[in-house]
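User: Hi! Is it possible to get a structure for several chains at once, not just one? Here's what I have:
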Amino acid sequence: MVDIRLNATINGRKVSRDAKPHLRLLDFLRDDLNLTGNKEGCGAGECGTCSVFVDGVLMKSCLMPVAKAQGATVDTIESLAKSGELSVLQKAFHKAGASQCGYCIPGMVMAATAALRANPFADREEIKERLGGNICRCTGYQKIFDAVELARDVQNGRVPATALLETDTADGDVIGKSVRRIDAPSKVSGRLKYAGDMIMPGMLHVQVLRSPHAHARIVSIDTSAALAMDGVESVITAADVPGKDGFGVFVHDQPIMARDKVRYVGEAIAAVAAEDALTAKRAVAAIKVVYEQLAPVFDPDAAMRPGAPVVHDYAPDNITKHIPIRVGDVEAGFAASDLVIEESYSTQAIEHAYLEPEAGLAYVDHDDVVTVVSPSQNITHHRHMLARIIDRPISKVRFIMSPVGGGFGGKEDMIYQGMLALLAMKTMRPVRLVYTREESIISTAKRHPSRTTLRMGLMRDGRIRALAMRMVCDGGAYGLSTEGVMRKAAILAAGPYAIPNVQIDTFGIYTNNTPSGAFRSFGALQTQFATESQLDIAAERLGLDPFEIRRINAMRDGDMTHTKQKLGSVSLMRALDAAEQASGWESGAPAVRGPVRGDLGHDDVRPSVTLGTRFASSGAQEAAE
Amino acid sequence: MLICDEYLTPASLDEAFAAMERHRGRYRVVAGCTDTLPWAREGRAGDVEIPVLIDVTKIPELNERHVGDKRVRLGAATPIQRFLDDAALGRAMPAMPRCAVWFADDQIRAQATLGGNAVNASPAADATPCLEAHDAIVELASATGRRSMPLREFITGPGKTQLADGELLTGFECDAFPGYGGSFEKVGHRRSLVISVVCLAVMVKLDRDGKTIEDTRLAIAGIRPVPRRLREIEDLLRGKKLTGELLEEAADMPLDLVQSRSRQEYRRDVVRGFLVRGLIAAAKRAGASPDALTRELEAAYG
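Assistant: Yes, the chains can be modeled jointly so their relative placement is included. Here is the combined structure:
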């Protein structure tokens, strides 16, 4: 390799140093200069958290070879609050509560800085447009736009700078007040260290070999060529696990690396620790695995049929979990109903898409405590599982939860921490693994795809007499949170409605797809999508307003749920009233409206999206035309 | 991951050709890199090892800009952002600023180049239909000589061009259309950072009263292997009185434009709406008489 001698001005200081020719500007800033404020969320120019100024122009540093910065002036998020004093925009982000997980925020602050430099008077639509290259997964953007508008108004003297300060809480009473988040300054300044930002002296870099097959027996794994490479410190496989292998939120059915067979594309098979990530990557490519293909099963209904390929020997019927609920007599309920509706529904797998891809750092400390630092959403459970897997007493296993750059349920599973712990134990050096976005998508849990059949029996006046639901979910190759998801899906399936006869069955099924796991709402989405959709259909058939049919059936204070929980207070009626009012709902049965709705077009309804507001504000192009 | 042993940034065409000769068979030419780097990732090309990358964006000739009344000449390394920053350029190529604002996002268009968009030859490229509407000529150079050809001949299929081994795209020469109104219609899954499902470039020139279409240029992409000029529609509109009926007649011409692999019916609906909407927007920016188009028509396609 021919290094590049890079001369640049970075955050106001002259930098002159050699860089590997294949580095991106982002790598150079983060790895070579330890400027980790700007993050890597996707590596493909999609998310914007790597945005930095190059000669005053905002660029995505993950798309820029470092050589392009030759002679340039580069400013990262660290340049904005140089001596610790936050910029007006950073203060506004703090004040407006614009940071949640914080991982997108350095890029957002940079993009907002660029937007207000380009047009100090940009309105909300133009701010949205200029921040179009940056993705946030937590906030829904509203607070971010609020923050940019606040900063704009302070900068323009329209509101006093005191608007950026904390609401007065001198009396110690913070209830009902808009209190600034205490963790926001670290996020808006880029100073907060996520696991992928952390380094330790002597640290090794980890890369993972993943299965290209959905279902195959592992005949042999030959790691000798990888181990022989310069700079490779260790290669591990399932054979290196000293204790009882297996993790999962409910059933511990997943080995930390594939054992004897692989069950989904992307499953970890081996892991390499090397002096740098590129060497580790090349070593991974040098591992030879011989597979014997097994018949895969990709459809949960097919997996339930006799004779289907078996994913786990302990579950020959491929059922991870079946949750049945029985209340009253549904057949009698249907017989007594004026109207019975039967429909089927399906939902798809969904990726959590947190901005921070998984990352972790592990080391064995001076007291032989195996320590794993990672954005795990479930560290205590992980600690107990890992102790058994590595056969160490619980007092010698420690989990440290690094800032979670978005989780949404997707970081509840101990997908990679076991490999890190094992490599740290093997090498007695700190080891770090940082997933790529692609690796995150291929190997970690998704929302359970579902197929639901739903029968609902109703009286003419809208009362539901009986509900029978059967939902089959694709749990993928491993159990993870499937059991809990099936449970909650069943518990909440009939919704907040008083129904005398209920029959619910939810099934989580093993297949050779990517494992399904926890995801916001934890199963409620799948079943309630069916129930709520069916209520709209029922409203149409019965000539009732959709709000009305829900009010007719709503549980009230003191009612018992379908799983015999007595409800002290039920807020459903208030929620319905608020939603009806806020949406400006045009009342009536769904069928009464023609092609035009009366509740669209009022002030609170956003116009359809377009781009080009900047033309109107700058006037330059308009005038030219 | 894109891995190279050497990253070269030649300062002249001669230096570039010398490097290409020296590393024959072992190099790849790059410009903005905004497509090359995402290409070299898992799921697309994966890890790619290319011994030598030759970055042509610092070559002065590839950054030239000449804007005249009749012709515009732009170097291949012109970043897309320039169409938003350079008012004179925007006047000469009036659909291009509208295209630029839909092109990727603020950051990427500061780096992505016009030449890269053409050499990539994506069926969904945003800039190439605009260039096509300007009858762009591509200028090619190699160590042994120069040649040029119309863009529509240069792009031969998805990802395919007539660029020869050892040859560089150096620039574009386009017809200038000052006084025309321009518009660019695009739809994808979101606004920014999105690949066009359909995109349409429109330019309209009206008479002094804003009532008659003197000239118009349309080109569409995203719906077939290569961009397509809509000369049939241009011919129908040229010299006619600007009315809503005329624009709808143009949108209803039976041209069988949609030849994509997927979502054909949806795209056909979009194309019809885009034609009317794009023509309305361009005509308004060209100074259409307030009574030429009805409010109802504008509301229907707004």
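The first strand of chain B starts at residue 2 and ends at 3. Residues 181-301 of chain B form a domain with the Enolase-like; domain 1 fold (CATH 3.30.390.50).

User: Great, thank you!
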